[in-house]
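## Example pair
The file below holds two records. Each record gives the amino-acid sequence first, followed by its structure token line.
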Amino acid sequence: MSFSKNVKEELSLQINDARHCRIAELAAILTYGGQLIQKHSYIYLKLQTENPLVARKYFTLIKKTFNISMDISIKGNQSIKDNKTYILIIKNQDIARNIMKATKQDVCYTSDGRIGNPGQMVLQNNCCKRAFIRGAFLICGSMSNPKKAYHLEFVTDDPLKAERLQEVICAFSIDAKIILRKKYHVVYIKEGSGIVDLLNVMEAHVSLMDLENVRILKEMRNQVNRQVNCEAANINKTVEAASKQTEDIIYIRDYVGFGNLNEGLRDIAKLRVENPEASLKELGTMLLPPIGKSGVNHRLRKLSTIAEYFREHKEESINDKKRD
């Protein structure tokens, strides 16, 4: 089962005790998935969905809030195995009008039967805003598998409905943005912390904990990878430095010998050649008396300076001979 489906299953089982919150959730379901159809002098309130969780939640909300039942039909899709369409219709126009009135939506008729945004009265309380977002996610929301990416979105073909949803989400200080994808307006959240906050707002606490567990594991992996990369970089840096130091010391030995070096430089030069893999701290402990890491580094840098001096002097001598 996908993570998105897990979230919807958790949300579908929540039935708020407060009537005004149930109405707010119904308002979202009707706004983003309902149809108001007029046939002759009658109006029907229709919801069509392929998600049985949505059908069950809508039926329960209508039953519990208005104490009515509705006609339900199920159609199978022959082209797709195990795919069914659930059609829930309220044919009593008085009841349909009462539901529209309760959710503060105008009873208007369009060619496709779409229902407009609910009035602000439905969303006055924060608890009702939570319920509204919950209903909207059931109808038009989805979420990517957090193991792959952090992305939660709501999809609608109406820009005003997208803006209303964005406004409600932003009321909880969550950064929701809108993007146009073909003919659809998508309200989306890409930050992991923002998605956690939204799951908390929708009261999907089990899904929230699952997401947090994924975030913790990902952060631990990232931290381990950063540490490994840092250690690998330090090792490479140490190896390169040791290689250069050894090269400089061998040049001094072969070109002028160690006889002109003072005792401190001569000792560290021999140790470095004999222990090319040793760290500066380890080299320092091998000396008698031992010296610190900075002291070893100072002596090795001085040896490199001497090697560079003799290299330049050798090149000058070669150039002088060529001119002669």
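Second record, same layout:
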Amino acid sequence: MNKENEILKSLEEDQKKITTLQELNELKVKYLGKKGLITELNAEIKNVAVEEKKAFGQMVNALKEKFLNFYESKKESLEEEILNKKLEQEAIDISLPSKKVKRGSLHPMTRITEEFEDLFVSMGYTVYEGPEIESDENCFQKLNLPKGHPARDAQDTFYLKDEYENYLLRTQTSTAQVRAMEDHTEKGPLRIVCPGKVYRRDEDATHSHQFMQIEGLVIDENISMADLKGTLELFCKKILGEKTKVRFRPSFFPFTEPSVEVDVSCFKCQGKGCALCKGTGWIEVLGAGMVHPHVLEMSGYDSKKYQGFAFGTGIDRFAMFKYGIPDIRTIYGNDIRFIEQFDRKDSE
């Protein structure tokens, strides 16, 4: 009992001196270390009479518990004090001028591609993507352009080395239509849009050797030109504005018959005539037509049962119209200043 009282008295005095975590840990070593006061007292149990061992053990455990309770409480108090001092020292002065954090912005091509996709998906279309490296068969022959066809001359193409006349970078997203029709093994109704990159030898302010297209394809029974016209009028008005006027002119594409060119009223002069529309009041935006029976048959469809329409346009061109971009080359220039401005343009 004398030893217990000595330890209790010593502990009470030491508790008053503790001001840091280091001192607290040193105190733990003093009492519970290998040669600590409580540890040595516990070792004395072997010298205690048998009938007194239980009471002695309970006394030692009570001392140990008393110290540990103090240790945990004091440790929590000291750590909280350290944290508060640190927060006080590292407080942010909110009166200082802030640093401007640069943030990303969607590229105009991403914006308008997503807008196209959202519109057509809402109309029941499925987005279908094909490879950019295509065979000559899919890129031309199955679109009714056999070898030697004069319409091929309008699409100077990038053929792969050692694969001349076999594989090339696709010149139009219509190749994805061929793949979609062949993948659709049931040969039933089909409604898809195919966005993606295409490649041709064009280099001026309004053309690029690489650009983006989006194609649409609808195949079903009893499809007519009226369905095509209604679809394209809705598309142009939703993208360019409800006041946009649309006109259709006869044209020629090997993979559609009949074929049309689609013009929209100039968004800059509202059809009055200006430098942009070259005084005509109209701007050509896409080509379309009824799918040629040969194209349907080459992909396994019965042209006597099914009809379809197809249309295609340059996404870059629509981006230039919508955002007033004068030179297509700036779209691919990787200038962050160019990209940052489109958040503001969309909000307008």
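Notes on the second record: The chain has a mean pLDDT of 86. DSSP finds twelve helices and nine strands in the chain.
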